[in-house]
Amino acid sequence: MTVLQITDLDVHYGLGRRRRQALKGASLAVEPGEVLGLIGETGSGKSTLARAVLGLVPASGGRIVIDGEDVSGYRARQWRSLRRRGVVQYVFQDPLRSLDPDLPIVESLIEPLLIQGIAREEAIAKARTFLPKVRLDEELLDRLPAQLSGGQRQRVAVARALITEPKLVILDEPVSALDAANRVGVLEILKDLRATGIALVFISHDLGSVAGIADRVAVLYQGELVEVGTAREVVATPRHPYTRLLISSAPTLRTASAGRAEREALRALLHA
Length: 272
What we know:
The chain has helices at residues 46-53, 76-84, 105-115, 120-130, 150-162, 180-192, 207-211, 231-236, 241-248, 251-254, 260-271; strands spanning 4-13, 20-30, 35-39, 61-66, 69-70, 88-91, 168-172, 199-204, 216-221, 224-230. By secondary structure, it is an alpha/beta fold. Belongs to the ABC transporter superfamily.
């Protein structure tokens, strides 16, 4: 079953003369175990699409189906129920936005499970099993977020999103705030998640960070999806001028500070 199906999605902000269209006629499908890279510059509509899928902004038109469930007309209570069931999860660009700075890591990890009614002891045991999946040591559970590196915090945020065993995880610029080494580490973890059957939507302004792990890439420009294809197709034979601009300016292809694994992944796509 398709995990996410978006059909002719429109989103508007504001009223009257200030009303503007942030997303126009977007259509996408994401399958189980698939990594979809959603690429575009700031203001292109990437985060708006994610927020619409999460029920955080209302759709003006179109249809959203998550794991076979048509959520297009959901009210606030129905959205809360869906999110509490953990069907869809979200990873922020800055993990400090999702991790309480005053709580040890273990408390942040088990919170989604406690909301679902799972006993505390069982939740803690599950949290311990998830740390190795994101390449973290169990000793970090008792630390505060400020005592972890940026890469460690982001891996905790990924573990927190996975712990409810969701069908869909949306990652909003999950590596843009990390240095090259930590960026590659998080990308490798996300690549490993393919085998679990979880569908991932990886949002980024940087094609280079996405192309190495994405099965398909969707390009947003001024609120419209201008190109969708396999990562190899989009990188090797871009059809839209904006996509070609993104490729020519991809920092992972042209900067010495970029992670070698990212550069090699893109070059492999280009020459495959």
